[in-house]
């Protein structure tokens, strides 16, 4: 990092902004995984509701990011809360859909073999369906990582902090160096986290995908 970029980094406190960004990202992704996985499991047990549920979640996905944030602000105020909420609302669909697909795609042979040795429906879910669905779940989480990183960046517009703040400052005040530095750093973080998610997905595919 040359002297000019280092000065911009220090002047606009990008280290603190990075920690704010990653904190919101982590909370949003964790909530998305918990809620999305729970929805996927529930719908796999109540398949007659899957069509209408996924249609509703798909409709939610059509809302532009900024429009959803604007709707959430009167309900949740400004700052990190509506930003995290928007991340979760966008990320539920890929995680829930992939979880549902993974759970319902387990072959009848695996299920019948488990039931033949006395496993209950709950035990089949925990010990057979969920492990074999993990590669699909990881794929949904990977999509959610990209959604979450982007929306957290937009949170700078609504007082959430994070790396969206210096990026917006650079745009509004025409500071090309700050725009380049903030944008490149956010992009690098997105690539790094996507790489981690891809590695996890690949490992799970090697472990369970051939079953």
From TrEMBL:
UniProt xrefs under InterPro entries: ABC_transp_perm/SBD (IPR051204), MetI-like (IPR000515), MetI-like_sf (IPR035906)
Transmembrane portions of the chain: 22-45, 66-93, 143-165, 177-200
GO cellular component: plasma membrane
Membrane topology field: Multi-pass membrane protein
SUPFAM superfamilies: MetI-like
Keyword terms: Membrane, Transmembrane, Transmembrane helix, Transport
Statement: the UniProt record of this protein carries the keyword Nucleotide-binding: no
Subcellular location: Cell membrane; Membrane
Listed CDD domains: TM_PBP2
GO biological process, one term: transmembrane transport
Presence of keyword Disulfide bond: no
Segments forming domain ABC transmembrane type-1: 18-197
Signal peptide: none
Family per similarity comment: Belongs to the binding-protein-dependent transport system permease family.
PANTHER family according to UniProt: GLYCINE BETAINE/L-PROLINE TRANSPORT SYSTEM PERMEASE PROTEIN PROW, OSMOPROTECTANT IMPORT PERMEASE PROTEIN OSMW
Protein name: ABC transporter permease
Native source organism of the sequence: Methanofollis formosanus
């Amino acid at each position: 990092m040359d002297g000019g970029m280092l000065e911009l980094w220090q002047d606009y406190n990008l280290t603190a902004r990075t920690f704010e960004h990653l904190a919101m990202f982590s909370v949003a992704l964790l909530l998305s995984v918990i809620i999305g996985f729970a929805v996927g499991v529930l719908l796999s047990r109540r398949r007659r509701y899957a069509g209408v549920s996924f249609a509703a979640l798909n409709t939610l996905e059509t809302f532009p990011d900024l429009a959803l944030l604007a709707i959430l602000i009167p309900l949740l105020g400004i700052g990190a809360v509506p930003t995290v909420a928007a991340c979760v609302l966008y990320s539920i669909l890929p995680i829930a859909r992939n979880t549902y697909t993974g759970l319902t795609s387990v072959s009848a042979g695996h299920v019948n073999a488990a039931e033949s040795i006395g496993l209950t429906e709950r035990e089949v879910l925990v010990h057979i369906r969920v492990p074999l669905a993990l590669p699909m779940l990881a794929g949904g989480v990977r999509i959610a990582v990209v959604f979450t990183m982007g929306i957290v960046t937009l949170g700078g517009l609504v007082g959430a902090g994070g790396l969206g703040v210096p990026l917006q400052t650079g745009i509004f005040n025409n500071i090309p160096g700050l725009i380049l530095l903030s944008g490149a750093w956010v992009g690098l973080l997105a690539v790094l986290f996507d790489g981690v998610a891809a590695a996890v997905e690949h490992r799970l595919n090697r472990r369970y995908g051939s079953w």
